[in-house]
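Troubleshooting: if your tokenizer reports a length mismatch, compare your output against this known-good record of 199 residues.
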Amino acid sequence: MMNSKKNLRLKNNFFLKSFLNHKSILNESINLIPEIEKIYKILLDTVKKNGTIFLIGNGGSAADCQHIAAELIGRFKFDRKPIKALALTTDTSILTAISNDYNYNQIFKRQIKGLGKKNDLIIALSTSGKSKNIIEALKLAKKKKIKSVALLGSKGGLIKKHVLRSVVVPSIDTARIQEMHILIYHTLCEKLEKDLFKK
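Known-good structure output:
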């Protein structure tokens, strides 16, 4: 009787439900590995050609952009040369000036117009796949022959149609999608570091 009561309490435990939901999405996301490997090849090729990795996203995904840039410019597992990466989500003067003088949908496009060049790569992060400011930047990138990939959620939204490759986490839960994005970009950063700077 005691065990059944304990099991009932666990089944109704909010934190346990969250952990089990995360585990379920993680198990489904294992199927994404082939697409992650394709994105990795584009990432590796960009670095080998001395291209810059630009990162774009909104809200929590903007924070993830900064996280990725920090892992690449700084270090992940060991000391090595910096990898050229820039989160276009960090300069408040640029972001507010573009938003004020043009509109919010131009915040990434304008920066790509000024900074982006051939052999560069845009990594877009979005849980919905609907962000207009990301789509505008990706449209311009295509015109400038700048490659782009994306980490997405839900069904990928319109962003999926504007990138070379995308990884779409099989969930509509923003938190779970972002958790998978963190795992994906950590594995990308770690493999890149190992392949480029083997000791």
